Amino acid sequence: MAKFYQRLQTYTLSNWELIGIAITGLLIRLYNLTAISLWHDEAFSALLIKYSWGEMIHRIGLDVHPPMYYIFLRFWHYVFGNSLLSLRGMSVFFGVATIIAVYYFTLYVFGNKRAAIIAALLVAINPFQVQYVTEARMYTMGAFFAITAAHALVCALRNQKLFYANQINTGSKKVFLYPYALFVLCSIILIYTHYYLLFTVAALGLYGFWYHFQNYRFTFKRYGWIVLSGLTIGISFLPWLKIFIFQYAQVGAGYWIPPMDRWSIPDTIWRIMLSAENLIRFPLPDWVFGYLQSSGDPSAESNNLLPLGHTEI
Length: 313
What we know:
Blueprint: H1 2-14, H2 16-30, H3 40-48, H4 53-61, H5 68-80, H6 84-110, H7 113-125, H8 127-131, H9 139-164, H10 174-191, H11 197-216, H12 224-236, H13 238-253, H14 264-274, H15 286-294
Helix pairs in contact: 2-6, 2-7, 6-7, 6-9, 9-10, 9-11, 10-12
């Protein structure tokens, strides 16, 4: 026990910036967390987890999302209950976990603690990140596993390269097989959390192949683990493929999200970085919100966007 407290003290002293940022991010996310009652999609989440397991999966198949978030939320509510605070609490948990994951990912990739602290701080105070912890939906969970999958993949690729270059003391392939396994696990969770995350997993896979080509060129036998990872992820989706096709057809027949135009990407970036809607939960003066709203995209009304707190993708 004494060693545990000593290690805890050492970790706290050497990572006080991260701890402070994580606590700040937590407090920001808890502010006004339950000020607004459940809206339609959140109520749908709360209702689904009350059905039997078989009925829950069946009803999810009739919706437009894959089932992983609801599975996580069901286990979460077994422990913490189904109050409004509890339901949104899982989003807060993954929101804070994303701050920490971004810190360690940045530290690993760049080897620069200052860059890692800045990255974690930007996530902690990002209005888009803050807004979506106030919803009992799958967005912060997806963000956490996306960062974790990226971290695991980069670790696997680097260790694999060192292994083949005989720069790792151990002769065991575990140094890169375990990170590959974590990458596969996180990727499977991602593709079963939100369909847009299929693009995230695909992008990570393309990066993996690009990295192999840059380092191994046409030595294709060294591509085996990244290929096996991709096949495993793809095969894991087959049990849900029929339902996905049904849901895709259902969305294609008619859905509230407007088609993309030339303003879609700039408008999204604006909303992510400094949207008045995303800042609404911060205790700032009313004139600030008025100024930000007036300087936004004048075509916002024509996009038929839902009111604040009612944005669903």
